[in-house]
Amino acid sequence: MSVREFVVLGTASQVPTRHRNHNGYLLRWDGEGILFDPGEGTQRQMLRAGVAAHDINRICVTHFHGDHSLGLAGVIQRINLDRVPHPVTAHYPASGKKFFDRLRYATAYRETVLLDEAPVAEDGVLARGDSYVLEARGLSHPVESFGYRLTEPDGRRILPELLARHGIKGPDVGRIQREGRLGEVSLHDVSEHRAGQRFAFVMDTRMCEGVEALAEGCDMLVIESTFLEAEAALAAEHGHLTAAQAARVARAAGVRHLVLTHFSQRYTDPSAFEHEAREAGFAGELTVAADLVRVPLPKRG
User: Is residue 147 pLDDT above 90, yes or no?
Assistant: First the structure.
């Protein structure tokens, strides 16, 4: 059975606190793992969360501020130390290649794993697989920053009542799914359209077109909410969002599950972010992220 869940490794912005590690997030998507923004301390948080280096197939870095990338050195060395048996692909802003190189080779170690670098230079599709398409969109931050989005191809959902109507049962159910037709009966005759799942990861940014495009129609949107609305001017000045802004984006985009994260150290009460998001009109599932929590993706609609 496929597993799709979002594992939170750290939720602090700029500096870690007593209760929040630097950023770090792993998306489990069927048999793959995508590590987003490994900040300082990510390797230890992986141990605490039960995430192994073998679980990582891709690394996606939104931008090269330290709270989103200082953990790269340790994670890359751990991948090699554990001799991960599959290639790992790293996506990051192309303008930050010098920072990636410095982190990748910060100290001496033996390279045992193929680490493919696939820098992001513009909006567009980065990878296509059987279970998702990965794309990037530019955001608005003092340094170049990209958000990431996974889109599962649409499929078909088999309906038992339609199978019964056409007298299809037993091994023939699997056959019509594989082959698309059984005699005069097509797959469309016994199924309905099923929209693929959509997931987006949006970190440090002001409001911009990229935020809205990434969020559109998502089943789960993980998005920074560094500040509360009282500090909206400060958020805009430093290239960040408030919880209210994130909630308004999610509401307009039809997001099913909103995950708020990347909190300024000035705030100690997580409930304030939930309250502000609800006041802004978001009525769907809502998680104010905490370190080491696991958030399952919503079931397909």
Answer: yes
